[in-house]
Amino acid sequence: MVTPAGLVVLTDRRIAREPLVAVVREAVRGGAAWVVLRERDLPYGERAALADALREVVPPGRLIVAGPDPLGGDAVHLAGADPLPVDDVGLIGRSCHGVPRLSTEDYVTLSPVFPTATKPGYGPALGPSRAAGLAGAVPWLALGGVTSAAEVKECVAAGASGVAVLGAIMRAGDPAAVAAELTAGLS
């Protein structure tokens, strides 16, 4: 089972500086390896169409859909309270803010690792070392407030498989350049 690693981009069309598909295309060009489609407020048909459009610009098999319905794909990322998917899905992740309580999930995001501008006051920030301790042996992604290659390095040094970012990419004037900068922290 391949689990998300490297730079993972979470979508938010409301804060994206350009149309969402264009931002994601540029982030992938800059080095983003995976994308999590959020946009859970969209009507089903619009969200499914957006998933299809994103699959055109994301590496094959690397689009994860937030929520238990993979919208025609094979990967989901669940909120803490979301039920497991009804149908068989190849990859299941879950958002955690403390010790993961897992059943069949393949990976977790732990947040917030750093203070985050996207959710001000959300926390307290875990820090990479505490997040690693909470994850234990479960593959994990650091989420929240990751804005520099140095922070990426700190997370990876603590044991993260990668970092998940939203605001740093969505708000970027040049998503490819920001993605490249963050990806540089992975090595």
TrEMBL record:
Pathway: Cofactor biosynthesis; thiamine diphosphate biosynthesis. Keywords: Thiamine biosynthesis. Pfam families: TMP-TENI. InterPro entries: Aldolase_TIM, ThiamineP_synth_sf, ThiamineP_synth_TenI. The keyword Cytoplasm does not apply. Residues 7-169 form the Thiamine phosphate synthase/TenI domain. Condenses 4-methyl-5-(beta-hydroxyethyl)thiazole monophosphate (THZ-P) and 2-methyl-4-amino-5-hydroxymethyl pyrimidine pyrophosphate (HMP-PP) to form thiamine monophosphate (TMP). This is Thiamine phosphate synthase.
